[in-house]
Design brief:
There is one protein chain. By secondary structure, this protein is an alpha+beta fold. The chain has three domains: about 120 residues, Arc Repressor Mutant, subunit A (Orthogonal Bundle), CATH 1.10.10; about 90 residues, SH3 type barrels (Roll), CATH 2.30.30; about 80 residues, Alpha-Beta Plaits. The protein is about 40% helix and about 25% strand. It is built from eleven helices and eleven strands. Helix 1 runs parallel beside helix 5, helix 2 crosses helix 3 and helix 4 packs antiparallel against helix 5. The termini are far apart. About 20% of the residues are buried.
Length: about 325
């Protein structure tokens, strides 16, 4: 039996162990083969495990592998974490993610009472992700290979801030999904420092000869520890903000551990603290509109004011009918 076929049979077993019935068509879609192949696989499996059909193919309960040594609550926590890994669509982790979720679902079901609703069904994790294009999926595969083999890569990258396309050689240290997109973190030979590159702006990626050593002690968690969201500027500045209205409720959960809040006039409040200084901070403040005022630093206040003035100027004149542009 080939390794690939053996892996597929184990995958089918993992799916059937969840306890629900799966039709041949559902198994074929999940595993990624034809129904004819599934029927052959089910026949072969029937000689190894007690598989039967009752509104779908099933395994006899408690008939295969003993329970894992996890509590039910631990399994639910694992399920939520693995759901986040489902964002790895298009990578080699996709099959492993589906298999792991199937195993966890089966274990949760075993630890639930017959009439009990599983917390794993009512507590979910949802992260909105842009669908991976074929190009981005291909890039993800190249970068995964480079990270595993410590190979440098050549990227043709579009920089949005500079509005330019440029080739860069990068030693990739790790991949991360943050916000709504995938990013690769690595040493940029051009800038001679560690940089972050967004995958959907990588126009081309190819492996280069040679190998590199990943810095001792490097971790994505520590790298992003001082970032606002994605980009780690390595710089913190004292920021003073005044929040009004609903912005206070939005800001407090995000900033409570980064500084202190004090009451202000007219039901407003002031925040003062050290924040990672990058364009991301400014973009977040702009989402709060007129319900936040930047008191300091002066440079950030001027930058926000410039953007708001430009935005307001778009609405000063008469409304332009889009149809006028085609006449």
């Amino acid at each position: 039996m080939s390794v690939k076929r053996a892996e597929r049979l184990f995958h089918i077993i993992s799916i059937l162990r969840t306890g629900r019935g799966y039709t041949g068509a559902e198994l074929a879609r999940t595993v990624g083969v034809s129904q004819r192949t599934i029927y052959r696989d089910i026949l072969d499996l029937s000689y190894l495990v007690p598989v039967y059909y009752d509104e779908g193919y099933r395994l006899l309960p408690n008939s295969f592998i003993a329970n894992l040594a996890f509590t039910r609550e631990e399994l639910i926590a694992l399920k939520l974490g693995v759901q986040l890994q489902a964002l790895a669509q298009g990578s080699h982790l996709r099959g492993a993610t589906q298999s792991a979720l199937a195993k966890i679902e089966e274990q949760i079901a075993r630890r639930s009472h017959p009439n009990e609703k599983s917390n794993g069904d009512v507590i979910t994790v949802h992260v909105k992700a842009h669908p991976l294009s074929e190009k981005t999926a291909k890039t993800l595969k190249v970068l995964e290979a480079a990270i595993e083999t410590h190979r440098p890569v050549e990227l043709r990258y579009y920089s949005l801030s500079r509005d330019e396309k440029r080739r860069r050689t990068v030693n990739p240290y790790g991949l991360t999904f943050r916000g709504h997109s995938w990013y690769v973190v690595g040493h940029c030979h051009l800038r001679r420092t560690t940089r972050v590159f967004r995958l959907d702006r990588i126009l081309e990626a190819r492996l280069k000869p040679g190998t590199f050593e990943r810095p001792a002690g490097f971790s994505l968690e520590s790298f992003f520890a001082d970032s606002w969201e994605v980009f780690a500027s390595g710089e913190k500045k004292k920021v003073v903000l005044r929040f009004k209205g609903r912005a206070e409720a939005v800001a407090k959960p995000l900033l409570a551990q980064r500084g202190k809040f004090t009451p202000g006039p007219d039901d407003s409040c002031f925040f003062e603290g050290e924040l990672p200084f990058s364009d991301e901070l400014g973009r977040w403040l702009l989402t709060l509109g007129a319900e936040v005022e930047v008191i300091g630093p002066l440079g950030l206040r001027k930058k926000i004011a410039t953007v708001l003035r430009k935005a307001a100027s778009l609405y000063d004149g008469p409304v332009t009918d889009p149809g006028d542009q085609t006449k």
